[in-house]
Amino acid sequence: MMNFGYYMPTRLVLGRNCVTEHAELLAPLGKHALIVTGKSSAFNGALNDVLSALNANGQAATVFDRVTPNPGIPCIREGIALLKSAGADFIVAIGGGSPMDAGKAIALLSVQERADSEIFAGNYAPEALPMAHIPTTAGTGSEVTPYSILT
Predict the structure, then answer these.
(1) Which of 5, 48, 120, 129 is 20 to 30 A away from residue 146, measured at CA?
(2) Is 64 left (phi over 0), alpha (psi -120 to 50) or beta?
């Protein structure tokens, strides 16, 4: 067996009403959230829960709900443009793997400029905007990894 070490700090909070009951966990992330999501979070109540939690903390929010399945570079660029124009300083991603992957890419590429042709080259520094992920599905595990899958 090969010896190895593994360290990936991720805090998980699970349970009914966990977003609104643990709103204080979002407070240290920043003053203005870019909420990255698809359209379903407005219907399943997750978006309202996040907006309520941010409001309880006195944090502003801008919603980017144009994430489509398997997001591509144009989606990420649109999210970065909205983040910058709104003055957002952290990300809350709501949904399945696609919104969470888009949120991670927006958080990274908003502070580490890359040409579209260089995005998949790797070699990124560890800097990115702070993030929280609110998964509404099970399966991808995107909420616990630092990686983003883009098409």
Answers:
(1) 48
(2) beta
State how far the Cα of 69 lies from the Cα of 102, in Å rounded to an integer.
Answer: 10
CA distances for 41 relative to 66, 67, 120, 136, 147, angstroms: 12, 11, 29, 8, 22
Distance CA 41, CA 58 (A): 21
Q: How many other CB atoms are there within 10 angstroms of residue 112's CB atom?
A: 13
pLDDT tens figures, 111-126: 998 999 998 988 888 8
All residue ranges of the chain with pLDDT < 70 are: none
In a domain? residue 38: yes
State the total domains in the chain: 1
